[in-house]
């Protein structure tokens, strides 16, 4: 008797979970427009040359933010099992601030042509050719985008 009641209860719970589970809702794609407001017909879709630049004020602001960062202590012995280890992150951030030459890196990056375009009122498109060892005879344009749609618009 107890077995039949338990079996009926389990079957009832399974049926309830199957029939009344929450449905995953997705946003309708529509026309695929990600820009703010209605689609503009006069959007500039031209590809323009671009040079990577930064100012001393931007670097000072970056270093100030680095100095103001609060790090959580990692779990003892966790290494990188639960995300980026904050002890190692402190070393990396210290290198970014003290050992890394931002200006030299800009010079290295600007040796290559970069291009930018506007896509649906966002400026996500920073392109540079992938160089192939032995010469750039077969060049592929590589788009660099953010991870989250709309991230580059904000």
TrEMBL record:
Family according to the record: Belongs to the peptidase S33 family.
Show the Pfam families listed in the entry.
EHN
Q: Which GO terms describe its molecular function?
A: epoxide hydrolase activity
Q: What is this protein called?
A: Epoxide hydrolase N-terminal domain-containing protein
Q: Does the keyword Transport apply?
A: no
The organism named in the record is: Engystomops pustulosus (Tungara frog)
Give every Epoxide hydrolase N-terminal domain span: 47-123
Q: Which UniProt keywords apply?
A: Hydrolase
Name any Gene Ontology BP term: epoxide metabolic process
* Keyword Hydrolase recorded: yes
């Amino acid at each position: 008797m107890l077995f039949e009641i338990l079996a009926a209860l389990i079957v009832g719970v399974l049926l309830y979970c199957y029939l009344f589970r929450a449905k995953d809702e997705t946003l309708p794609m529509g026309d695929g427009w990600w820009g703010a407001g209605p689609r503009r017909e006069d959007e500039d879709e031209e590809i323009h040359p671009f040079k990577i630049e930064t100012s001393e004020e931007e670097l000072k602001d970056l270093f100030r933010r680095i100095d103001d960062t609060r790090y959580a202590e990692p779990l003892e012995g966790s290494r990188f099992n639960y995300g980026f280890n904050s002890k190692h992150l402190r070393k990396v951030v210290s290198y970014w601030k003290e050992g890394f030459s931002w200006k030299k890196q800009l010079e290295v990056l600007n040796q290559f042509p970069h291009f930018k375009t506007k896509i649906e009122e966002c400026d996500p498109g920073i392109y540079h050719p992938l160089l192939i060892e032995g010469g750039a005879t077969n060049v592929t344009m590589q788009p660099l985008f953010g991870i989250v749609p709309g991230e580059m618009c904000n």
